[in-house]
């Protein structure tokens, strides 16, 4: 089941209450302000602070 992109207009980061971005490739919602990503399970965003994963920095491996 795919994530309904219309939900991006109403969902917010549970930590800072800011906007979230969709990462379609990894099926997760990203909060750039807090540097965390929330999983999307079967099309449903899991917006629980204890399920947030730190964002991987693109400079890893340099």
Automatic annotation (TrEMBL):
Give the InterPro entries listed for this entry.
Answer: Trm112-like (IPR005651)
Q: Which Gene3D superfamilies match?
A: 2.20.25.10
The membrane-spanning stretches of this chain are none
Q: Where is the signal peptide?
A: none
Q: Which GO terms describe its cellular component?
A: cytosol
Q: Which domain of life is it from?
A: Bacteria
**Pfam families membership:** Trm112p
- Per the similarity annotation, which family is this? Belongs to the UPF0434 family.
Listed PANTHER family? PROTEIN PREY, MITOCHONDRIAL (PTHR33505:SF4), ZGC:162634 (PTHR33505)
Q: Under what name is this protein listed?
A: UPF0434 protein GCM10007894_21480
What's the source species for this entry? Paraferrimonas haliotis
């Amino acid at each position: 089941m795919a994530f309904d992109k219309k939900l991006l207009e109403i969902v917010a980061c549970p930590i800072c209450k800011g906007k979230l971005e969709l990462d379609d490739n990894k099926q997760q919602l990203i909060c750039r302000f807090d540097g965390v990503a929330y999983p999307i399970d079967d099309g449903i965003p899991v917006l629980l602070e204890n399920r947030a994963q730190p964002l991987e920095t693109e400079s890893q491996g340099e």
